Amino acid sequence: MDFKKCNRCGCFYISDSNVCSNCQPKDNLEIAKLNNYIEKYGNNNCSLDEISVSTGISVKNLNRYINENGINISL
User: Which of 7, 9, 27, 71 has the fewest CB atoms within 10 Å, counting from its CB?
Assistant: First the structure.
């Protein structure tokens, strides 16, 4: 385990994940929300701004989910 800075809130913690234990449930909820959005509307060349407005997920977190979780969005 490494001493890390949470990618979501910025606090320091010790773990193997990229977010602290306080932020993990929030990430899981937003990832589920994003997956539901993709299932409902498809992957149809929406911008990150459009997805952010529709889901309430920040563009910063959308970028993080795409990079860290391999979520495929055609932009």
Answer: 9
Residue-wise DSSP of 8-73: TT--EEEESSSS-TTTHHHHHHHHHHHHHHHHHH-S----HHHHHHHH---HHHHHHHHHHH----
Contact assessment for residue 47 and residue 53, using Cβ atoms and an 8 Å cutoff: no
In eight-state DSSP terms, residue 3 is E
Place of tokens 């997920």: 57
In this prediction the pTM is 0.83
Paired tokens of 22: 């306080």
**Secondary structure letter of residue 5 according to DSSP:** E
The residue ranking higher by pLDDT, 30 or 2, is 30
